[in-house]
Specification:
Distance between the termini: 58 Å
Helix content: over 70%
Keywords: Membrane, Transmembrane, Transmembrane helix
Number of strands: 0
Amino acid sequence: MLYLVLTVILSLFGAFTFLPRFKGLVERYNTGINFLLTLIATMAGVLLAISITNYEAGQNEKQDVIKLLGAAISSVEQCHDYSEELVEYFSKLPKDHALKTDFYQKNPPPYPGYLDTFLMQNIVSKNLSGIALGELNESLINLKRVQMVNVPLYIETLKLTHELLALEVRFQKGALTETQLDSSVNQLTEELQNFLLGQSSETI
């Protein structure tokens, strides 16, 4: 953007020499002004080329981030589906079955370890929205904390993480504004809080 602004400023500066009121000055210093105009044209061309290159690099980075987000979504989906299968298997065990005692300690629901690698990448931390970056880090902490102590909450947190990543993809593609993203993320966190309240009321 800076290079584009400088290009416009230089172009406008050069355009002043074509105004009638500067005609006498241009004729008097013809050689010097021609040299100056050539210099301005060259600099404007260079700055414009840099601006275009930077824009293309930014677009390429955005596409790379979208691909990485897609991989992160797949990782979360696989963990979510397998975790639900574990819960289903556990629920079908007889009430007094020996496996139920420490079932999740011996068969922990899978953790999406790719997300740790995903968030550590420079291209991700540089291009991801601040909203998603903060919420994803918080989600990972929560996933690790409840993985084997509260599997229903773990699955619900995986769902939130999946939705958060999907929202970020839409944001990166320009389908959501930052305000819309923030509102949608707040709605997701509210749903998780309601789930927690529901769990709390069931234990009372």
